């Protein structure tokens, strides 16, 4: 019964079918253009499941897929041009596509307000802050709130959680579900979880994610990575490996951006901070910065810094946004997850 409450089936299928009909074209249709099913299978096993997914890959990346020769890739690319006759949309069509954008509540109305409604789909939201500022607690809260119907026809949906630090705790989710009157078991079933062990593994998991989002089309609404940089930090150490790290990171983030657009999901990343050695010299007020440099900065649509307030309170601030005011929001970490601060 409560499972229905978390995912109202009539609304969900109507809302998502519209998006699917207009924007998601299965790569199986390549068969009608003479591409054999084995090659299509190879694409799918690399997480490329839609026509748009092929368009989003460079020829070089496609040729790197085992068993796909350059000639085959050329043929596939040629078919795509035949299917997608125009890459251009009118601004009105872009507007119509943007109508499918939704926001997931953070559990705190103040924080939602700061974000313009919540964590947005077709975009990457990054929160960063020192330890115990609530990044993991916010990730857990979103696992539950993403399943609740929300404003703007948001129907609620499933969540994918990628954990790089082994801090995922289903027991915490139960506390949060209780606050929102959700059936525990149904709520837990709507979350798929993977532990990433290396930065390479973290990236590879996205093949599976894309395939899953395609298979259960329109059902997944949120992808969480807690934390995005932890493994990159370990796997690439020292100045000498920095450019390699940034290149791999850029590839993964670009992949995430594409997934968010292709399947209309919200991407939520947590990030850590480092002290900036140049800060003392330049008299900066806040010498701590999120890690990941320019690559991370450019990939995130919205960046939020978190800091500790009094007791359980935490303060969120929009960081470096070109179009959002530099305001702050105070929220609290409670047993039931992220909530408004009491005073
Ligand atoms: P790192 O991953 O170490 O960088 O930190 P983080 O930002 O992910 O911190 P996290 O989200 O784990 O927040 C930890 C804070 O949440 C601590 O201050 C805990 O006291 C608090 N917290 C965790 N569970 C509960 C709870 O059930 N009730 C309350 N009130 N606070 C909790
Ligand atoms: Mg954490």
Question: What would you note in describing this structure?
Answer:
The chain is an alpha/beta fold and 343 residues long. It has two domains: 9-83, Orthogonal Bundle (DNA polymerase, domain 1), CATH 1.10.150; 101-340, P-loop containing nucleotide triphosphate hydrolases (Rossmann fold), CATH 3.40.50. Helix content is 44%, strand content 19%. It has 16 helices and 13 strands. The strands form three sheets. Strands 5-4-6-7-3-10-11-12-13 form a nine-stranded mixed β-sheet, with helices on both faces. It has a two-stranded antiparallel sheet with strand order 1-2. It has a two-stranded antiparallel sheet with strand order 8-9. α12 (199-215) packs parallel to α14 (242-263). The longest helix is centred in the last third of the chain and has 22 residues, at 242-263. It starts with a helix and ends with a strand. Magnesium ion binds at residues 135-136, 167, 226.
Number of strands: 13
The stretches of 5 or more residues where confidence is low (pLDDT under 50) are none
In total, the number of domains comes to: 2
Bound small-molecule species: guanosine-5'-triphosphate, magnesium ion
Shape: globular
Which range best describes the helical content: under 10%, 10-25%, 25-40%, 40-55%, 55-70% or over 70%? 40-55%
What composes the largest sheet?
9 strands, mixed
Task: Specify the number of helices.
Answer: 16
Structural class by helix and strand composition: alpha/beta
Rg over CA atoms, rounded to whole Å, is 21 Å
Helix and strand pattern? HHHHHHHEHEEHEHHEHEHHEEHEHEEEE
């Amino acid at each position: 019964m409560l499972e229905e409450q978390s995912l109202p089936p009539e609304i969900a299928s109507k809302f998502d079918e519209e998006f699917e009909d207009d924007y998601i074209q299965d790569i199986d249709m390549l068969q009608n253009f003479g591409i054999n099913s084995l090659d299509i299978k190879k694409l799918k096993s690399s997480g490329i499941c839609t026509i748009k997914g092929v368009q989003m890959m460079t020829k070089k990346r496609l040729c790197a897929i085992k068993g796909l020769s350059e000639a085959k890739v050329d043929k596939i690319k040629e078919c795509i041009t035949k299917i997608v006759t125009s890459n251009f949309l009118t601004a009105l069509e872009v507007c119509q596509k943007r109508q499918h954008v939704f926001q997931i509540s953070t559990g705190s109305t103040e924080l939602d307000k700061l974000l313009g409604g919540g964590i947005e789909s077709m975009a990457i939201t990054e929160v960063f802050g020192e330890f115990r500022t609530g990044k993991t607690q916010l990730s857990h809260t979103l696992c539950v709130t993403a399943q609740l119907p929300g404003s703007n026809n948001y129907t609620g949906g499933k969540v994918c959680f990628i954990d790089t630090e082994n801090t995922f705790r289903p027991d915490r989710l139960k506390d949060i579900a209780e606050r929102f009157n959700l059936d525990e078991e149904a709520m837990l079933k709507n979350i798929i979880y993977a532990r990433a062990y290396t930065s390479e593994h973290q990236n590879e998991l996205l093949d599976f994610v894309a395939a899953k989002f395609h298979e259960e089309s329109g059902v997944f609404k949120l992808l969480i990575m807690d934390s995005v940089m932890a493994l990159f930090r370990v796997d690439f150490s020292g100045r000498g490996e920095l450019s390699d790290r940034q290149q791999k990171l850029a590839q993964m983030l670009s992949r995430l951006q594409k997934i968010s657009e292709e399947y209309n999901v919200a991407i939520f990343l947590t990030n850590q901070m480092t002290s900036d050695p140049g800060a003392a010299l330049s008299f900066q007020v806040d010498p701590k910065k999120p890690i990941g440099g320019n690559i991370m900065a450019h990939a995130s649509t919205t960046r939020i810094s978190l800091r500790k307030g009094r007791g359980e309170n935490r303060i969120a601030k929009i960081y470096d946004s070109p179009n959002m005011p530099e305001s702050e929001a105070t929220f609290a970490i409670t047993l039931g997850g992220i909530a408004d601060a009491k005073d």
